[in-house]
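Lab meeting minutes (informal)
Scribe: AK
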Amino acid sequence: MSEATPMTKIQVPLWLTSTAVVVALATGGVVGYAITSPQQSSDPNINKIVSTYEAINDGYYQKPDAKKLVNGAINGMVSSLDDPYSNLLQTDDKTSLDTTISASFGGIGAVLKNDQSKLLIDSVTADGAAKKAGLKPNDELVAINGKSTTGWSTSEAVAKIRGKVGTTVSVTIKRAGVNQTFKVKRQKITTETVAGTMDTKDKALGIIQISSFSEPTTDQLKATIKQLRKAGAKRFILDLRGNPGGLMPQALSIASMFLKNGQKIMTVEPRNGDSVTYRAGKDYDDGFKVTEPTAVLIDGQSASAAEITAAALNENRNILLIGEKSFGKGTVQNVNSLNETSELKLTVAKWLTPKGQWINHKGLMPTDKVPYPAAAKITMVTKASLKLGDTGTDVRSLQQMLAALKFNPGAVNGDYNETTASAVKAFQATNQLPTTGSADAQTLQILTTKLANQLHQDDPMINKARTVLSKESN
């Protein structure tokens, strides 16, 4: 998940998953601690740290790296907490957090794809920097800032293209056999965190997927709901599956939209000080309310802000939670800016649902348990291609995908044998691909897309939600 909007990190409330951070507001400010100079402390433990630093810095037989000493001390202190949510974020990790917060990045407005080991520009946005510079769909990307992209994945290329908004990246492409180099100025690209569609089976049902709770999410959700209402939506499915969380203000605003003013959204309990309860109201939703019948989808990757929202809707409005047990992230962290390249995230409190439940390590139990089909749990193929004679987990995944799509690979045993090769050939023939029997990158990509489309078209959780909402409306 450009630079994030300038901010002082200790002022930013954030809810994320196990691999990120959660920040909570307290009355009149942020739960947290001011970082003071250790030399001014009368705490003997702090003085012990300072004395150790000075002894190493002054007496070690080689000149130590002062930055490494300090970061080592911080990491050591944080590690002693044995808390996966508290740690020191530096450089790339800090940038990743900033990008998550803002749901934006510095890019050029182009989508890349990997086509038979070539990196191609799949599309360019109408008002994007790439189009303005002269880049076009199907241009082959051959170098970035003078470095060849041969052998690169799309992720590697994207990482090199992205950067600080306003800076320039050199992009070399091949078009009609001729290399051309373009200087492209990076612009702010905002990520869409909300997607809405009208159900194909129920013309009055709008399906809304929220991928994260970031700065633009509330506004994007409001716009999506308005569009779906215009299209005839009379009821909604709020899909929070795979949503790792996001900004606390967004969670409060979104939950508030579905609740009556005054209803409790959540309570935060710090170690010291009074608990803080947040309630629905105009301050959070600006008077925008969603009163239509709604169902919420959750799974094992629905965490933090997603769990806050799901619990608030369920415990206040009896909105059904459909799917699988959620992740279970019930602690609160804040983020303290240490300098321009590092920040400390630290667990400072726990949060409770409107009914006082602490879901940490427990998760939210769905009111209607609907498991994913077996095909949805197939492990992704990690190799670029597979062929006759190969063995291992990637081959097993290939066989499982073929079987799910009704192409018989024989025994699902991780052995790329003649039967598996025949199934691959049959799939390739059906999809107008060269019938080699080897699963090259293009075959694997189309296979994955076909399976995803099948799962999307016959989603058991959406099917259940559709049935429940239809009964409620009748």
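Next up, CB showed the second protein from the same session:
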Amino acid sequence: MTNMPDLSKPMIGWLVLKDKDTADTAMLYDTGERFELSIPFSSLKEGRGKWFNRGVFPLKEDEESQIPYSMRFIYNNETFILIDCHYAGMTSSFSFGLGPGTGKIVPTYVVYGGRTDEYDQINGMRTNCADMVQWFNLPSTECRSTLNDVGRCESVDVHSEVKDPLPIDKEVGLYVRPTFNVTMSPMKNAVISRQNVDIETNIDDVEEWSKHLEIHREVLDLISITSWMSEGFTDMTVICKSDPIKTEAGTVIDDRWAPVFSYKPLIDRKGNEYCPKNFLFDFSDIGSEGIRTWRKLNTDCGQGMSVLRHLDQNHEHMAIETLTMLAGMALECVGWYIVQSEQQTERMKKRSGKQQAGPYSKMLDAIIEKFEDNFPFIDADKWKMDMRNTYMGDKHPDAQSSDFQTMYEVTMEGMIILRLWVGLQLGASIGQMRERLNNDKIGKSIRYLLKE
């Protein structure tokens, strides 16, 4: 995206609140860890100082003492809508807050270019990450070259075109949108055509930011799980249909998709360099139905999928004992999900009249059975025994723990089994996934354990 403001340079402008005719001086600044809005005040007893009083003086709790959820910041002719604003401290030139000072507010989201104060809730969101083009394989650009008789290139035709979005889940307004953008290099000696794939949610009624973000995060996490390399957002825009692009005469021209800055989630527009990945499965293997099934799985087997997603995002920073515990927990949750959904009563036990999961080994049996003759490792019984002993050894202080090599191997195997099981639920071919294990990030580290 071009012509984006540089928030790392402090901007001194005007703070405007909803339904207020006045404006206050303020400074917006990207610290590198968060966005801060600094607001000077003359006293904690009046004006904007009330926002930062925090019990220094006994004041009546009213609307003027509460930090608004959203506010508008204007710098020259640029507008920023600050969403989900929180108190972040204050400094005063006198003891106990007596006299002038400066208060700090931290917004979760900064919407660039919005012209109204109605972005508390939004109609839509678009996001992308560097892997989406490869994972979805929905190109919007073609490159054709013409060679002469000796094989030299005589002409190159690069053709990019807008394509219709692909509906994924109309119930929540979820689409996949192939896009492209063309830019000229600063030296004017190169034209860069870059194709992207956006995840889009777009609905008629406004909804909380968190509801849109949850759907986008689910799709992004699915892509990350297939490569076992955690991905983050490289762009985000939102739409509020009450704030379209208009002419000076007030005629509506188009929807306004406004860029968003945020650290929660982190939007790293500099991190969009593409790096080829090896996916255990991709969109061509599961289709739109597979993504809908994944979203349902996050509800029906919520605890297990939540742990798996956490493992994918944080495994590089965890000790092997922590990985073992979390992988073991996810396996237990998935096993119990299978037992419950299929009413395998022989693998249940009752306590106080309620059905509960049976022994851990029976939960592993429920998972192993789903692979039939396609279990990916040489010895399923040995893995089950070692996984059970390792997990219980880490879980209980009075149990004997496994040696490091065994712990590493069964944990890596367990995480592969979890990912393969997810792929099976979404419609991917177990044969193709097993073939790809040799180049998988985890699989290639334990090739000697893979069954041919």
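CB comment: The chain is about 30% helix and 30% strand.
No objections, moving on.
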